[in-house]
Amino acid sequence: MSQPSVVWFRDDLRLADNPALRVAIDRGEPIIALYVLDEDSVGIRPLGRAAKWWLHGSLTSLGERLAERGGRLVLRRGPAGRVVREVVTETGAGAVFWNRRYGGAERAVDADLKDGLRGDGRTVESFAASVLFEPWTVRTVGGTPYSVFTPFWRACQSMPAPRAPMPEPRTVPAPDRSPASDALDEWMLLPTAPDWAGGLRETWEPGEPAARARLRDFLAEDLGSYDRSRDEPATGSTSRLSPHLRWGEISPYTVWNETADARGAGAHAASAGRFLSEIGWREFATHTLFHFPDLATQNLRPEFDAFPWPPLQPTQLEAWQHGRTGVPLVDAGMRELWHTGIMHNRVRMVAASFLVKNLLIDWRHGEQWFWDTLVDADGASNPFNWQWIAGSGADAAPYFRVFNPELQAAKFDPRSEYIRDWVPEHSGGEATDAIVDLGETRKRALAAYAQMRSTSARADPSRSVDSSGGE
């Protein structure tokens, strides 16, 4: 009697270069392709609204691609450990395969499920699919996790090169009787009252085919200018792959190998190397989350627990959220985020610095807003980058490095093209005054930082934070 294999899809919504799917196909039994929307397991962070919009499109695409190859996507909702066991029992599955996740709560769910299923005599295997270098394989000489990017990335590059991507399967055989599936529309992932996702639809096409097309277009059209213009928000010479990578519609192995091929061919070597280092930064974020699973809620550098955040000013937070601060580059970025579900990386840094340092609002408020509004909101990269800006994270920018939005605009948007696109009143003579004075609030931020250092030193005289932000 046939014993089907369950392939549990998570953040790997693709057919090509999917190790769990590949092993299941090689096993030779029918395949139950399962996705579980888990917002119930302990510690699992519910998706933000923009992420839910993307997930709906990505699951639609995956379901269509599986159907074209004879398969069927099964959708279930609930605590993943319980739901996967239910599907295994219903179908008499003999094996379960998935690709690994690296958050603390996710790993706990996976480990418990793996132990239970193996105890029942099932074959259970997990695979590396979303990172090039698994976190436990990259350590300092002393055996500790890396906390600075440059030596981390140097260590990664000294390891064996990432494997070649696996081919896409021609067929994905489904069992004669597939288990019951939820209807995707029942999950209500799309906004309806009101429907605020018009800008997302204009900007993005979720799914594996769109991800592959975007990589192909980037390498052919934008890679050559990436190194010199990646920081200019009006040029569009970034990869725009981040949401596709976040949802696993394309694997980092595919991105790495195809980019390396472009560099190896002698084309755009400097830009290719710079772009691959950005893939490395994504790896570093996951590496950090693996070792510090409370990254979204706890300061990585404990001395920042003493930072004297003033009482929250809700009106200032709301002005920042909706791009009404009166600071053109910040407002442009926040409006781009609201409309498209993404923001240019240079502007992300400026907008985040303004919130944390000019408004003196705890970075966790900004991280939560980005979690809700970014289509590429990632459990590692989002809090990692916010802590980098706040000075409290790994390899962090020193707290006293305050991005001046006016200087940043003059340097990276000198003709105000980006600002005009998103803040038309700036060039129409209708601009409003900034809600805070940039110079005065910079002084206030530095005073708060000095107070934190003093408090931290008194609490633990053995610790001292030097002027470069390192210990």
Structural features, described:
- The structure is a single chain.
- The chain has 471 residues and is mainly alpha-helical.
- The protein has three domains: 130 residues, Rossmann fold (3-Layer(aba) Sandwich); 117 residues, Alpha Horseshoe (Serine Threonine Protein Phosphatase 5, Tetratricopeptide repeat); 158 residues, Orthogonal Bundle (DNA Cyclobutane Dipyrimidine Photolyase, subunit A, domain 3), CATH 1.10.579.
- It is built from 19 helices and five strands.
- Strands 3-2-1-4-5 form a five-stranded parallel beta sheet, with helices on both faces.
- α3 packs parallel to α4 and α12 crosses α13.
- It is globular.
Q: Percentage of helical residues?
A: 40-55%
Structural class: mainly alpha
Instruction: Report how far the terminal alpha carbons are from each other.
Output: 63 Å
Please give the count of helices: 19
Averaging pLDDT over every residue, what do you get? 94
Order of helices and strands: EHEHEHEHEHHHHHHHHHHHHHHH
Task: List how many beta strands DSSP finds.
Answer: 5
**What's the gyration radius in Å?**
23 Å
User: Beta-strand percentage?
Assistant: 5-15%
Shape: globular
State the name of the first-level CATH class of the largest domain: Mainly Alpha
CATH fold node name of the largest domain: DNA Cyclobutane Dipyrimidine Photolyase, subunit A, domain 3
Q: Which CATH architecture of the largest domain would you pick?
A: Orthogonal Bundle
Taking strands numbered 1, 2, ... along the chain, how are they ordered across the largest sheet?
Answer: 3-2-1-4-5
Largest sheet entry: 5 strands, parallel
